[in-house]
Design brief:
Number of helices: 24
Low-confidence stretches: 49-67, 69-82, 286-290, 345-350
Helix content: 40-55%
Strand content: 5-15%
Largest sheet: 4 strands, antiparallel
Number of strands: 21
CATH topology of the largest domain: Rhopdopsin 7-helix transmembrane proteins
Structural class: alpha/beta
CATH superfamily of the largest domain: Rhodopsin 7-helix transmembrane proteins
Distance between the termini: 140 Å
Length: about 775
């Protein structure tokens, strides 16, 4: 109020602004209440105009003087006055909205210095409303940015029943939730809260795990609730208007003295408040007569010195809200200056001053006020945007306690809504002191952040900020904190142990450098060497009875086929390629069928030889060498045709199988069968020949020991069938490269079984018992 008076008097003393015109003012108390505000306004609008004279000023008083009404929170008497041209006020949004709604149709300018509700931006409802403070729309944006800057996503809100609080909290909540935040609770302070209501709200604040509270309310409204949390208020952050030092204002304020006459009620109330004394009854008027005067309080003399006080009234290093009042008065003065076409400084006496007019239309002043644009003595450019709003600029202040225990507000940053978004919020965190004198930013989260490698799992029925953290599944990653989902790795990639990075899968196959691969290659070469040695022995002793008696031609063909059986395991070792995938199964199938065809012929020869009447019988003539070769060819040809058709129509091909990544993190490189039935047909035909050989050999098991090869074939076929019957379930259940290893093992085991059971006993006789390798021993009859 005093700053407004100071500004009016300063303008009246300024020869450059409104020369020849004296401004007047009329102050009324809104009592921060809608009804009182409307009553005061109506009394001004309906009061008869009267000519006012101003002491110590001989300048002309004009009809249409700018009459300014000021809203305060003091509860003094509401005074009447002259009709008004412009209004400065009010402080609260709800009373301001009510006044603006009435003044709008009359185009009477209403310039508020503290009503920040975004609802007042609506120019259809409030066409004559302007303000020197930014709308809460910008304050809300700044609050949301501030809260998100510190990582607080779990906050409570406290408000009141007025428009400022209701619209502010609604806007904050909407924007905060859109950015992923959540509200833990919302408390509304009643207009006259009871002790029980205050206690219930205090319990909610204390019991909640939300450590941050966003408040939209005045200090007076919060006083009762936060009286129990005074220590907690230390360290709070708030948005404040930029402050300036106004020269001469402090000296002007210190001249205030109580007076026992109308118009000084506020001065008298201030005096009693700051000096804790009581004025004589002569200083009291109407509504103030029943104020609570304690007889124990000393009587005020009226000569007390305000300069010795330490209060907000005299602490004027920087004024913030009062500066908005100061700008409002000057904006009205400049608009009136432009409207009256006042001359500039330096003009002659005859030219100086404004046009002599008896009146002007109020809507003219409103039009000029909307277009006002000037730079004040503090270097700030004062103008209103299209919607009657100033440029949004805030100081961010921190409530701190100094070394003497006194609370002070320290500027720790700023928020400028007129610059690009990434530059709007500026903070100096090193200056911030948090609750309890801590320098560490408090944490306000419903749930701790989920570390990389995990994802959020919402808790049913709770806000989105309340969640559990679940580790990512195999093959999925999350490389950010608080990921809502895990990202599946691309094909042939796999998650590392921490589930934060996709790494390329390692090709896994039976390598020649693996221990298992080395062992299998060694066994293969051993089998080839043994077969070669036995072949050499048989060739060297090919003229001996034991070699000749066992059909040497078929024996040599059988040794060749066994060597092929050993060698066919080599394409299974190493990284699969197109040619190895096609060769491995075909070579395996043909080699073993050739081997079994030879065994089948040898078995038939043995049976025919000993079931007939003699070696030169007709049965042996019917199944001579030519017939034996034909049988081998006929039994081998179906397998050759099957493999050729299989490889031509649906050949196996190398394939990187990512299915086994789930357990090993490796990509198995294997030969994929386009037609799996082909492999089982090849294996089935081998089994058919093996079963037939086993059956025929079993029938000839009781032939003479010395000459009997059927018993050896029987043992070899039992081993062969046992190996391949065990192979099927082992092949199906073995993972990855072990599938190949199982098949190689079956090939080697069955090949060694045939080689050792059929040829080693004969080599033993040839090399160790040569006395038994004579024709006489070969023709010996069974006992």
């Amino acid at each position: 109020m005093m700053t407004m008076i100071f500004a009016v008097e300063e303008i009246n003393r300024n020869p450059a602004l409104l020369p020849g015109v004296t401004l007047g003012y009329h102050i009324m108390d809104s009592c921060d209440h809608i009804h009182t505000s409307l009553r005061a306004l109506l009394s001004l609008l309906t009061h008869k105009s009267e000519k006012r004279h101003f002491p110590d000023d001989d300048r002309k008083s004009m009809r249409g003087n700018v009459t300014i009404t000021k809203s305060t929170t003091d509860s003094g008497r509401c005074l009447t006055g002259s009709p008004i041209t412009a209004v400065v006020g009010l402080a609260s949004s709800s009373p301001t909205g009510a006044i603006a709604h009435i003044l709008g149709p009359f185009s009477i300018p209403l310039v508020s210095y503290f009503a920040t509700c975004a609802c007042l931006t609506d120019k259809h409802t409030y066409p004559s409303f302007l303000r020197t403070v930014p709308s809460d729309l910008f304050q809300v944006r700044g609050l949301v940015e501030l809260v998100k800057f510190f990582g607080w996503n779990w906050v409570g809100t406290v408000g009141t029943l007025d428009d400022y609080s209701r619209y502010g909290i609604q806007a904050f909540s909407n924007q905060f939730i859109q950015l992923g935040g959540c509200l833990a609770y919302h408390l509304t302070i009643p207009q006259s809260p009871t002790l029980g209501e205050i206690g219930a709200m205090a319990d909610t604040l204390q019991s909640s795990n939300a450590k941050v509270v966003v408040v939209f309310a005045s200090e007076v409204q919060l006083q009762e609730l936060f009286s129990e949390f005074h220590l907690l208020l230390q360290g709070t952050l708030g948005f404040s208007f930029p402050g300036v030092y106004i020269p001469g204002l402090r000296e002007f304020l210190l001249k205030v003295r109580p007076k026992a006459e109308p118009g000084f009620e506020f001065h008298n109330m201030l005096w009693e408040e700051v000096f804790d004394c009581r004025l004589e009854t002569a200083f009291k008027f109407s509504a103030q007569e029943n104020t609570t005067d304690s007889p124990e309080r000393p009587v005020c003399t009226g000569s007390e010195d305000l300069s010795n006080l330490q209060s907000s009234y005299t602490e004027l290093s920087k004024v913030r809200i009062s500066y908005n009042v100061y700008k409002a008065v000057y904006a009205i003065a400049h608009a009136l200056h432009d409207l009256l076409e006042c001359g500039s400084v330096g003009a002659t006496t005859a030219e100086a001053g404004c046009k002599t007019i008896s009146f002007f239309f109020i809507m003219q002043l409103l039009s000029y006020l909307k277009r006002v644009n000037f730079t004040n003595q503090f270097g700030e450019k004062v103008h209103f945007e299209e919607n009657g709003e100033p440029v949004p600029l805030y100081d961010i202040i921190n409530r701190q306690k100094d070394s003497k225990g006194k609370i002070r507000f320290v500027k720790v940053g700023s928020y400028d809504g007129s610059v690009p978004m990434d530059q709007q919020l500026q903070l100096n965190q090193s200056k911030i002191v948090w609750t309890g004198g801590l320098s560490q930013v408090p944490v306000s989260l419903c749930s701790d952040p989920c570390p990389p490698g995990s994802r959020q799992a919402r808790r049913p029925g709770e806000p989105q900020c309340c969640f559990d953290c679940l580790p990512c599944a195999e093959g999925e990653i999350s490389n950010q904190t608080d990921s809502t989902e895990c990202t599946k790795c691309p094909e042939y990639y796999w998650s590392d142990k921490r589930k934060v990075e996709c790494v390329a899968g390692v090709d896994d196959f039976l390598s020649v450098y693996d221990t298992m691969g080395i062992i299998l290659i060694t066994l293969t070469l051993l089998g080839v060497v043994m077969t070669t040695v036995i072949t050499t022995v048989f060739h060297h002793f090919r003229a001996t009875p034991i070699v000749r008696a066992n059909n040497s031609e078929i024996s040599f063909l059988l040794l060749v086929s066994l060597k092929l059986c050993f060698l066919c395991s080599l394409p299974f070792i190493g990284k699969p390629s197109t040619w190895t995938c096609r060769l491995r199964q075909a070579a395996f199938g043909v080699s073993f069928v050739l081997c079994l065809s030879c065994l089948l012929v040898k078995t038939i020869v043995v049976l025919l030889a000993f079931r007939s009447t003699g070696p030169g019988s007709g049965a042996m003539k019917l199944f001579g060498p030519a017939q034996q070769r034909t049988l081998i060819l006929c039994t081998t040809a179906p397998q050759v045709c099957l493999c050729a058709g299989w490889l031509s129509a649906a050949p196996p091909f190398p394939f990187r199988n990512p299915m086994y990544q789930a357990s090993t993190g490796k990509i198995v490189v294997e030969c994929r069968e386009l037609w799996p039935a082909g492999f089982y047909l090849v294996l089935g035909y081998i089994g058919l020949l093996a079963s037939l050989c086993l059956l025929l050999a079993y029938l000839g098991r009781k032939l003479p020991d010395t000459f009997n090869e059927a018993k050896l074939i029987t043992f070899s076929m039992i081993i062969f069938c046992a190996v391949w019957l065990s192979f099927i379930p082992a092949h199906v259940s073995s993972p990855g490269k072990f599938t190949v290893a199982v098949e190689i093992f079956a090939i080697l085991a069955s090949s060694f079984g045939l080689l050792l059971c059929i040829f080693v006993p004969k080599c033993f006789i040839i090399l160790v018992r040569p006395e038994n390798n004579v024709k006489k021993r070969m023709n010996k009859s069974p006992r």
